[in-house]
Write a structure and sequence with these properties.
Structural class: alpha/beta
Keywords: ATP-binding, Magnesium, Metal-binding, Molybdenum, Molybdenum cofactor biosynthesis, Multifunctional enzyme, Nucleotide-binding, Transferase
Shape: elongated
Oligomer: single chain
GO biological process, one term: establishment of synaptic specificity at neuromuscular junction
Protein name: Molybdenum cofactor synthesis protein cinnamon
CATH class of the largest domain: Alpha Beta
CATH topology of the largest domain: Molybdenum Cofactor Biosythetic Enzyme, Chain A
Number of domains: 4
CATH architecture of the largest domain: 3-Layer(aba) Sandwich
Largest sheet: 6 strands, mixed
Pathway: Cofactor biosynthesis; molybdopterin biosynthesis
Radius of gyration: 33 Å
Cofactor: Mg(2+)
Strand order of the largest sheet: 2-1-3-6-5-4
Bound molecules: ligand LQZAQKY5, molybdate ion, magnesium ion
């Protein structure tokens, strides 16, 4: 079944300014994913501005694969409500009855539905429907139209065979065998254990929006760190920039008597100084009070030593100039000035700048616990046991957290046992705000993570993501406790850590939102790659050839094969296969997330 791409456009000044306030957009996305297994969703938020709404809609209409667009918001009577006015000029045909069906259904719930002015119609080959802005309203409106949508698309496509089949179904003339379920809803119910995941397969962008909306970000950087002013001058004294001789610039070049020695760490010296005298001085040492310049040792000659072997006379071969090779007091940073010229959440930057002005403060970092689940797991170092495998995830995630500057508590392996899993989660959340587990999130009857979370009254925001690897990635929260259930397959855990858990932890630590995800670059593929049904995050190593970056896929990409992370500089983002495109070709350019600072493996 080919994927259908839906667009979900939230139109609201408020949500545009604070995306975490957008409830109706994510609700629509989740309903689409639940109703259509082959759905892909692009989502965006724009303010109530006619031109911005039109520009976003036009872009989606021009994308061949976007077949249905739902807008939510801006349909009412308020002065800023302009969604219908923005939509109408883009429609080639209006579909007023579709809106009538929505309105009739909505009026059964509330007469306020009469105050919505939304329109429906076709622009290019895309069906556009304006829904109101409330979460409840979009759920109801979607419920009204969802069964009509596949047939509407067949009609827009002029897909005669499927149109006839639907007409036959409606008229009851089709045989049972010939019936196809054009709109495959997930069952979510059934006798005994449900055989279908009740969790919609959400697009990555939606999961990211959810994570940033749910995880609480510390404001300590804004409230405290960025406002820190320096209690000292740097340098706190006039400091020599060179190893050489400190003197008066009013004297000339030529021979000078060496009257003293100043090393870094010595207190500034008040001894009188004549124009034909100098002090030997080291880089970083304080200039004697009466000196105003330094001549580097390379521009001098030693003339004589005294009886103790100490330098007594030197020849200064350049003309001394005022301030030559001197850093004045406060040259680098003045007392009371802000110590951060710009905000930079890197712990390296924060901690070292604080230290440079004498402030010893450790940054509050989110507390994280790691736990591997699986009765099959052996700790590295243990003897092999039939049926068991070694736990690589705990080591990998601990190293990744350290690499990115975060610490963790690493706990024991949990066996696949529901009461034990629940007990451990409760216990861990007494100590930390993030728990990252691996394993136990897919469909097996021993996959207890989601059940444990539900029984502990966590809200599961995401139980599946439309990606490969990492589909069953689970994100849940309760109060300020956040839980990432990464899939057990080692590569799935590796990819989902980088794409979801790391940005969440950086966000909690107070990082800017744009800095939380890994940096993205463009790379050209070195070889063809067959596209998957899900968007895929392929591990690849990068070669730089004449300034262009090429990505070579690291062997078999099955999610159990940890060898694919060896030499992995980037995760190349490949789109899902579509009816038009089934492979990514060598030479094509794709975005890629940078996994490591030293991300170029080879130069050719
Ligand atoms: N019926 C279905 N089965 C599966 C689905 C599905 O949609 N329907 N999804 C598959 C996908 S995709 C993934 S990914 C995995 C994820 O499974 P779980 O998160 O439930 O993980 P487990 O079943 O516990 O283990 C999977 C695999 O990984 C090995 N593993 C687990 N932990 C570790 C560790 N710490 N170190 C090394 N290896 C580990 C484990 O032994 C299994 O081989 O589910 C698919 N199934
Ligand atoms: O998502 Mo799984 O991670 O495909 O193997
Ligand atoms: Mg499993």
């Amino acid at each position: 079944m080919d994927p259908i791409t839906f667009g979900v456009l939230t139109i609201s000044d408020t949500c545009y300014n604070d995306r975490s306030k957008d409830r109706s957009g994510p609700r629509l996305v989740s309903q689409i994913m639940q109703a259509f297994r082959n759905a892909q969703v692009v989502a965006s938020v724009v303010p109530d501005e006619n031109s911005l709404i039109q520009s976003e809609l036009r872009q989606w209409i021009n994308r061949e694969e976007v077949r249905i667009i739902f807008t939510t918001g801006g349909t009412g009577l308020a002065p800023r409500d302009v969604t219908p006015e923005a939509t109408k000029p883009l429609l080639d045909k209006e579909c007023p009855q579709l809106m009538t069906a929505i309105t009739l259904a909505s009026l059964k719930k509330t007469t306020f539905a009469a105050l919505s002015r939304g329109v429906c119609g076709i622009g290019g080959n895309t069906l556009i429907l304006n829904f109101p802005g409330s979460e409840k309203a979009v759920a109801e409106c979607f419920g009204t139209v969802k069964d009509l949508l596949p047939h509407a698309l067949h009609l827009i496509n002029d897909d005669v065979a499927l149109v006839q089949r639907t007409h036959a179904q409606v008229q009851g003339t089709e045989t049972v065998e010939a019936q196809i379920h054009v709109c495959p809803h997930q069952t979510g119910v059934g006798d005994g254990r449900d055989r279908h995941s009740p969790f919609p397969m959400l697009p990555i962008s939606v999961v990211m929006d959810i994570i940033f909306g749910v995880v609480q970000r510390t404001t300590c950087l804004e409230d405290d760190i960025w406002k820190t002013t320096s209690p000292v001058n740097i340098p706190p004294f006039r400091a020599s920039i060179k190893d050489g001789y400190a003197m008066k610039s009013t004297g000339f070049s030529g021979s000078k008597r060496v009257v003293g020695f100043v090393a870094a760490g010595d207190a500034p010296c008040a001894q009188p100084l004549q124009e034909d005298e100098c002090f030997k001085i080291n880089t970083g040492a304080p200039l004697p009070d009466q000196a105003d310049c330094v001549v580097q040792v390379e521009d001098t000659l030693l003339v004589s030593r005294d009886k103790h072997g100490e330098e007594s006379l030197v020849e200064i071969m350049v003309e001394p100039k005022p301030e030559l090779d001197v850093r004045p007091i406060g040259h680098d940073l003045r007392i009371h000035d802000s110590i951060f010229p710009i905000t930079d959440s890197s712990p390296v930057v924060i901690q070292s700048l604080l230290s440079s002005v004498g402030i010893s403060k450790s940054l509050p970092k989110p507390k994280v616990a790691l736990v591997s689940t699986g009765s099959e797991l052996l700790a590295p170092g243990e003897l092999p046991v039939p049926g068991k495998v070694y736990d690589s995830n705990a080591t990998m995630l601990e190293e990744l957290l350290l690499y990115f500057g975060f610490n963790c508590i690493r706990t024991v392996v949990l066996s696949d046992n529901l009461p034990e899993t629940k007990r451990s989660l409760v216990h861990l959340f007494e100590k930390v705000e993030f728990v990252i587990s691996t394993g136990g999130v897919s469909m097996g009857d021993k996959d207890f993570i989601k059940t444990a979370l539900e029984e502990l009254n966590f809200k599961i925001h995401c139980g599946r993501v439309n990606m490969k690897p990492g589909k069953p990635m689970t994100f849940a929260s309760k109060d300020n406790m956040c839980f990432f259930g990464l899939p057990g397959n080692p590569v799935s855990a590796f990819v989902t850590f980088h794409l979801f858990a790391l940005p969440a932890i950086r966000w909690a630590a107070g990082w800017e939102r744009t800095k939380c995800p890994l940096a993205t670059i463009q790379v050209k593929l070195s070889q063809d790659h067959i596209l998957d049904r899900r968007p895929e995050y392929v591990r690849a190593s990068v070669t730089s050839k004449n300034g262009q970056l090429y990505a070579s896929v690291n062997g078999n990409q099955i999610s159990s094969r940890l060898q694919s992370i060896a030499g992995a500089d980037v995760l190349v983002h490949l789109p899902a296969r579509s009816s038009e495109c089934f492979k990514a070709s060598a030479g094509e350019s794709y975005p890629a997330s940078v996994l490591r600072y030293d991300f170029i493996s080879k130069y050719e």
